[in-house]
Records
---
Amino acid sequence: MNVGVLLAAGKGERMGSPVPKQFLEIGGKMLFEYPLKAFLESDAIDAVLVVTLKGWLGTVKEKVRSPKVVDVVEGGKTRSESVRRALEYLEKMRPEYVVLHDAARPFLRKETLERVLSEAKRTGAATAALKSVDTMVWKTESSLRYVPRDGMYRIQTPQAFSFELLKRAHAEGGDWNDDTEPVQALGVEVTLVEGDPFCFKVTYEEDLLLVEMLAKEWR
Amino acid sequence: MNVGVLLAAGKGERMGSPVPKQFLEIGGKMLFEYPLKAFLESDAIDAVLVVTLKGWLGTVKEKVRSPKVVDVVEGGKTRSESVRRALEYLEKMRPEYVVLHDAARPFLRKETLERVLSEAKRTGAATAALKSVDTMVWKTESSLRYVPRDGMYRIQTPQAFSFELLKRAHAEGGDWNDDTEPVQALGVEVTLVEGDPFCFKVTYEEDLLLVEMLAKEWR
């Protein structure tokens, strides 16, 4: 059994909006509903668990009416805590693989999540990632430090792992921006799978116009 | 006098298309025509120089019929060589400021280029940049090295410089992915200006669907 976990428990404090970004309504749908649709439509995903903010549990449950969604549960204070809550919940289901996706990346394609899952089945751990094409700098107080671009990747979600591996990675607690980092800390190699330029993370208010335009064209 | 330089001399070898990406026709226009429009419409820009590939000089000249475009010239083998050809051409015009933009970033807004130019007028050197929101990794043969995200920026174009400063930065030759790097090597601080998520670089074939969708909505 493969379970999709939709992480929709972020507060989105960089957005400057009172409504967390995953609940912004754009193109007639809340943003979290876009990637949810990809999970629901994929035959590779047997069940979906949604992790969200306490105050939004009711709203999300109302929007999510597919029997494929096994539950909507409350997340933790950090992304990693939310992942651990999902893992605890899934304990009784004992899935073979879990596919995690951030609801702040609305334009998820079914093909991308299936590509990542299928690679994780081969190697145990995989993530969508894109080669970095921009010049990257670290800004210090007085200067810019240029970071070599070769071999640099931007990690996206979806990320897929064997359930047992992800549990081990989270056994000691800790906080990370994604789940490949604690998995790799176990000495496990994480495979990078071709990501998708559509699957960008909505972070700032400036991103919303882009989301609006794409929502119009997104089937 | 402020001159806009549109760099359209790249071969786009990562695209896998026989036609360099700036000449792909999407939404009834070649990609280089999108940012050109922003240059033409901005009152802050007095003249525009287009640098392009030898084999495409005729096509570009045909498309570019505005008297604001002073010329279409042949670029060099590398991005930096193309910039130096532009600087040589501009010598006789002696502009105060130049605004450089990569034609591979089609969705340039007039407001962005004006923001960058206006900051360069204050400090001498400015570039559009976006905070990095994805987890970044360097991929080595056997592992991923996680790069701290705090303080990390993705450098975009437009980039604006005082003409004299940019000339000094290029006086000794050299090749860079952008023009802030040789400017900073002179000990000059480069200001980062809020970039634009629309202003991404078209690099891979996978980016084209995104371009097609946006072109439909782009005014």
---
Amino acid sequence: MNEIKLFCPASVANVSCGFDILGICLENVGDEMIIRKTNNPGVKITKIKGDNLPFENKKNVAGISAMTLVKEKNIPFGFEIEIYKGIASGSGIGSSAASSAGAVFGINKLLGSPFTKNELIKFAMEGEKLASGTLHADNVAPIILGGFTLIRCSKTLDIINLPTPKDLFITIVHPKIELKTSDSRSVLKQKVPLQKTIQQSANLASLVSGLYTNDYKLISRSLVDVIIEPSRSALIPAFDELKYAAKKKGSLGSGISGSGPSMFALSKGEKIAKNVSAEMGKVLEPLDVEYETFISKINTEGIKIIS
Amino acid sequence: MNEIKLFCPASVANVSCGFDILGICLENVGDEMIIRKTNNPGVKITKIKGDNLPFENKKNVAGISAMTLVKEKNIPFGFEIEIYKGIASGSGIGSSAASSAGAVFGINKLLGSPFTKNELIKFAMEGEKLASGTLHADNVAPIILGGFTLIRCSKTLDIINLPTPKDLFITIVHPKIELKTSDSRSVLKQKVPLQKTIQQSANLASLVSGLYTNDYKLISRSLVDVIIEPSRSALIPAFDELKYAAKKKGSLGSGISGSGPSMFALSKGEKIAKNVSAEMGKVLEPLDVEYETFISKINTEGIKIIS
């Protein structure tokens, strides 16, 4: 195999009570990438469509992730990368992670899969570090492993693939505003009241139980974030109204995707997910905010090989 | 049925990363109770063996829990309660909860089970309130439901019965020192750094995953309490040495049972649980501290009817 074409899905990190822990992989929202072997050693990004991103390896998340992988092996050839962005950067649904994960996934395939999935996550986290300043795995892990992923420890990469109830659908509403990562970070309170810590833990543990038992009602009761959302919601236009709209139309729960500005809502069944999307759209329609919405199944496979 | 004899098991609350959330029911450590119908309406405690406890309903956890239940129904007869304590009060393995839960469980049976298990938990929590000042369910829930219980919300009594991997054994080491609840409480820090909140949540969620998948290694990695234990461990004699002893002999993890002074260790298989018990005993042997140890399977049934 000398060339591979990939679908690199979007993902939702910081899922409600699972801030910095829980991520979800999406099915039909994502980028495409082509990676091909070349005679020139190293990595070269040759094409970027759909976004205005740097071609220099050190400044591009795909480039830096790919370089980190390539340095681990003595490879007598090199790789060209073409990136076709479908995920807007800064949208909060893992745009940088899709590129980072896609690059290392594709090169690994072209090399005959010498690296484990956990090693690929480690390489892709270098791209995340370039994008956000921190080595976090809660977008790249679901993209590479698929489904719901639980990061027990991001230092040791102790990551658990949770089961996905088959009727779960996700609605994404992306208000096209610029939200600086530094702002999303600066609003976070660094100390949490003990009672809220307990509540949040209990919700996350119950959510995990609900995923194992296909208990949609329990999933719904558990999708409550008492720590991060109260601080960050002020940065999202019409947050309370969007959340109310999702609830009104029967979603199981909703929250901020990643560090925003996108919001996600989980629903049982595609029909509810569509109604939720329409109702959330109605909230943004009269405002002076451009937006887009997506509906997706949960992608239990992760990155897909197109050809 | 006019009389019922019960085995009311001990329990471990505050299981490691599950402070105020996770409880476990023990198999072969507990009290016995006899409850019988009498012609005199109301509740009367007629015998208490094994401990020096008040007979007056309002001052006895079994009495107050039983009264709370009885007041809910118009019952033309009454109940006598005999309590044979096997669990030392103040040991940290749910002595008050066993009596509270036993009383309401037995009376409910004699009434033909008009109340649900969740209602029984609610009544038994009145005993817990008398004993500790707060309405907490993390001992009475595992006693009534059996196995591992997860309290998502103690206000709405949203309680989840988690699966119990069949080779799990528990070691209890009870150093016979007096530990005041007020001291156990006063050492707790009321604000938790955000990073520790995340770590604790991730561990609890992973522990739940390990219980569903019988993943003993994951259970072991997840049995880490970064919030409560660092504050409370100073109240337990030779805590670090006891924890080291448990680890050295292959336990999956250990921690403070309830608010102490007992410690628990979870192990895969009875043999390891016994070795852990012996090694922890060796730590306390040279100290001027009386102690007792128990080994138990996890009791997935809860309170048992003896006759």
